[in-house]
């Protein structure tokens, strides 16, 4: 449910409101009052790189305060020409010009008017000097090896902090360790010197970071003389110095960091230890630094005072020093005097108490002067308080309390203002307020009054004051209405009255509807790595929509406005999207809706699901020969209950390292009794599963090994592989490693003829195959295979029936009839062969057919055998996709798994005429305003005697309406063009041309063209000419036996006139088997003559063009590499003429014929194919399986299938 919360902005406003109600109202500046200092500087440092130094002092009061200064308790003249004073304040600047050291001192600011004087705390102005090491001559130091030595630094004084470093001339730090130590003052101590300490460039560097200054002391030379008799000695303290004795005192201010140091010389190098006498060192705040020589305690408190002892020791003795730590503190206020406003005749008291160590002394002042000399009548002064009675306006003053000890001074000003004034309401009249239903309304009436005043509120339409538990008037005059309703809207008046008089203001209150919020989905469960989408739907009052703001948070932490930088979390106002959710995204997501008046938040618990953690601590117990108990501990389920455990094992001798599933256990169980196989060295692991997925596998368990045993199962899937006649190759699935149960696995194979009363033949093998020779072809045998190993045999095997090898069928079917269904489909009927002549399992019958000649022109065709197979025992089949008006021969043969048998005698049949295919092309070669000339080419397949053409045309302008269809019957089959007249000018037509036989007309070929306007010619441009310099490419043979027309066209504007035209009948590529010598065939000689004639003509044209101004080579180059701009202009000016949808390559010779789709009367061979093709006949039953192939020596055609089985004679 929605939980209404105060938004952050509303919470802050309420906090400051309550704070305001609990403190005194400031005196308006319109009322006379003593000065109050509102801003002053603290310690000011004159850094040399600053342009000027500003010392601030600002105050308020009525009348306007006047400022004056003292320096070191002496008057300081602001009219000094060397400083710049500010107008209307006490602030002044000291320019950084020349010597300013004489300005160093302690300043105090005084702000005064006729009613009193306020004074500031002391402001110290520090002018630091530039630190320098003195110029001195440092004598070299010469010591014996093992002696102690101290290299003094004596850094110059400067502005803290000070950092000291010991380095050589190359600015490399001098290494410090247990033997070498730098003290807090900067001196370098050696507990005992070694020869490696000799060097002439020991340099002390003093750094003053606030001054951006580093100074260097002159280098020191240290020479260590080697000694053959180095004496060992007990420790002797060098720090603290010996003259301080065995005890010393250290004073530290509360809150600072205490540093105590001890360093002892001796050989071996002494070790330093620290302890607090009578107590323990403060844990968490103490550290030992510099190899134990420095004790550091941070944030010192009074409980840290006492005695601390350092002890330096080696095996020869010890040395001690005690530090008496004294903790002191600068003054701080315990009770600070407070300013007050009083009326005539009233009384008051000022309290001033401070703490510190030593105890601070208290001094009172009035208007900056000691109180003893400026007492008012009725004042009573005590060390920590001042009281006064029967106050009068002339008693108005500023009292100062100053607490000080040796560590500092604190100063407080307390204003005593005696005022009598009619109430002054500071809130504007007719102020408008608004709140939402159920919230509190706050109507302000801030005022100043002296003497004290009474505040009352009432509604404008009611005479009596507001009373009741819902109304609360605060000390500052604010009216709070609790739990507002719509009836609380209206106008209210605030009256403030004291002994001097009364005043009033009016306030108006509007009530708005509360904001509503809903987050969806509620408490979603999201798998890890998925996407989380949350939507925040809000509704607020129409007056508050402009201020509505939505924000998202998770577990109380706000998201950035746009989400995260990596883009994984995206916030788009009301939508929060988290991509690739992680487990860390789980938590409470809250949407906060804030308006100017209210706020509401709703939360949803997001649960992130993940695969479980792997199970752990796998244990094996109850170990038996064929079982073992596995136990484990469940891992974290990541908010999704574990549904099951998968127990896997590894122990396969053939595939070591391969894990296999053994069993599954319900998710509430963490133990399983595992059934095992013999002769396996097991290792187990467990995977947990929940609704998200599988965990990673657990760590493997210990090993458990089972003893061997005899096989418990025999091989499966006993079968015979395709083999030679009178042969059986017996195969079976070998036992897996887990099934062998022991070493020495073998297989005992037994067989005998099925049902024969003879003994079983037997053979034992180690592999999983056996070759057996039999006396007969395709005879049934009972076969058994039994597994055996060194421990015994498997169970009694079951017999399976297998057949010996097959042979080819040895007789052919007899074709009874061929019934013609249509021009492309026939039904073949044959007689089946006897079962004993199959010599195997009969798989079906195969029809071979080939076209012998065309009945249209009587031309014979080379033998190209097609194959169609029919599965099963049947005596008929349908042969599709035949050529119409042709003569065919077919044979039928039987086939089994071995192959096909002999063919039947060829059966001759003929197909009737059919409708022709569509014409090869249709082109409009010339148009005028009312005429058009059409040209076409006859179909590639006529499918009968051509009787003529049917020409149709109609208007198809760019509208949805089409014109009437006109028909022209062309009864001259040899006609290849037609001239149409009486057409409409500037009109688009569509033309349809069909070829016809006595069986009807075929599919149309279409073309569109538009007639021209007055006086224009419509001669179309031929798209490409022949490049006369290009070599002639052989024409691609699309189909053996097809006719192709080859024309040589002029590349100019004109009709469909050709220089050369010939019809070429294509042949296949494999004639070697049909004809002894291809060069002696007539078609080949004719083709060669045509090509020679064409070549001669091309050479002649080339010669003529080259003699026409010598421009032929340029034209050729343009054709090969056309200029894009010129080509574009040509394309836009003239329409392209092409007899094909695809443009030919430049310079190539291309047939004008197109490969057209088969006519509707042709049956597709795919419809009768085997395998992936559809199989059907007229009544929906299976027809047969087709596979196109050719006998050896047949002509290969484009797209034909290869033979699937060899043909047998």
How does this structure look, described?
- The chain is mainly β and 1209 residues long.
- A hairpin with a 5-residue loop joins strand 15 (180-182) and strand 16.
- The model is unreliable at 1-24, 1016-1080 and 1109-1209 (pLDDT under 50).
- Residues 692-715, 1115-1149, 1190-1209 are annotated as: Disordered.
- Its main location: membrane.
- One of its GO terms (molecular function) is cell-cell adhesion mediator activity.
Brief rundown of the structure:
This protein has 1209 residues and is mainly beta.
Task: For this entry, give a set of tags.
about 1200 residues; mainly beta; six-stranded mixed β-sheet; five-stranded mixed β-sheet; about 5% helix; elongated; disordered N terminus
Summed up, the helix count is: 4
Give the strand tally: 90
What is the gyration radius calculated from CA atoms?
58 Å
Low-confidence stretches: 1-24, 1016-1080, 1109-1209
Largest β sheet strand count, sense and barrel closure: 6 strands, mixed
Helix content: under 10%
Q: Which strand-content bin applies to the residues?
A: 35-45%
Backbone structural class:
mainly beta
Shape: elongated
For the terminal residues, how far apart are their CA atoms? 91 Å
Estimate the mean pLDDT confidence.
83
